[in-house]
Predict the 3D structure of the following.
Amino acid sequence: MTDERSLGELSRTEALCLLASVPVGRLVFTHQALPAIRPVNGLVEDDMVVIGLTAGSAIAASSGAGGTVVAYEADSLDPAQRSGWTVIVVGLARLETDPDAVLGYRARLRPWLAGAMTDVLTISSEIVTGYRLVPAVPADEIARAAEKWSGRSRC
């Protein structure tokens, strides 16, 4: 048995379920024409990532009226076991404008930073990619399988 790992791709559904299972991720966006990454806490609802923002947040300043393209990444990794998963959502971030939705999200979000939550940011899930670390197949097993199947019809 090997402790080497390879990446197994997750389905969109699996990826979003795993993303919903962790309270903290990283928001990747452009700020003053440069890449910026911030740890944020959020939640997943209806294929959207929802984040609470405090006054003066860089992403609120970067979000135009039509929204801005961002990435949200979260993972759960166990270095000792060399196991875990990672999920990235790429989508359009917009400030939530529906007062009832804002109130509902504020009740469920628990910001880590001091200060009142001034805005709620929603991120659509246009592109969802996720990977789980899985045990790698040793090279000698791959070679034996290739020998076994060589010369057989593929149809």
